[in-house]
Amino acid sequence: MKLDVIKLDGGKAGSVELDEALFGLEPRADILHRVVRWQRNNAQQGTHKVKTRSETSYSTKKIYRQKGTGGARHGDRNAPIFRKGGIYKGPTPRSHGHELTKKFRKLGLKHALSAKAQEGAIVVIDTAEADGKTKVLAKLVKDLGWKRALIIDGAEVNENFAKAARNIEGLDVLPSMGANVYDILKRDTLVLTKAGVEALEARLK
């Protein structure tokens, strides 16, 4: 698959050949769903917590006499049936993460890249470099028509470019090792640098 390479100012900078094994697959929704679910579950904090009847604060004195009231025989005001009593089988801190093999995660990334390629939503740029001015980069991004874009660079992101892009709404910048299925699918446009293409091909082969 051949794509034109452009510069940030919109000028042409040759072309690049994208590997069909990474960008030419028929995207499968079930694979993408499983990988995104794995990502989001691992990102969940799992710090939700309620108090059980042993943790709620109330007197332990028997609330009324055992016999003669005509009502149920209660001894503990912290029982779950009472308002402000302990919660029965409520959430406790735990990990929501589950296992997914490296092979499957790699496959998911290939399908995400292929999905963007099939949509025609991949743009390849020569380099992602800037002078650190957000205003200048924001104008370039607007002229290119990127509203919700993810830029994936090589092993490292240019520091000035990262600073310039930090405050632009809808623009994310990641190094190639940070490329993931959720972020790729979340954005409308996937922007790869030439170094990013090479790094992804080396990572996923």
TrEMBL record:
Gene3D superfamilies linked to this entry: 3.40.1370.10
GO molecular function: rRNA binding; structural constituent of ribosome
Coiled-coil boundaries: none
GO CC entries: ribonucleoprotein complex; ribosome
UniProt keywords, alphabetically: Ribonucleoprotein, Ribosomal protein, RNA-binding, rRNA-binding
GO BP annotations listed: translation
Family membership noted in the UniProt record: Belongs to the universal ribosomal protein uL4 family.
Subunit-level organization: Part of the 50S ribosomal subunit.
Function description: One of the primary rRNA binding proteins, this protein initially binds near the 5'-end of the 23S rRNA. It is important during the early stages of 50S assembly. It makes multiple contacts with different domains of the 23S rRNA in the assembled 50S subunit and ribosome.
The protein's name in its UniProt record: Large ribosomal subunit protein uL4
Originating organism: Maritimibacter alkaliphilus HTCC2654
High-level lineage: Bacteria, Pseudomonadati, Pseudomonadota, Alphaproteobacteria, Rhodobacterales
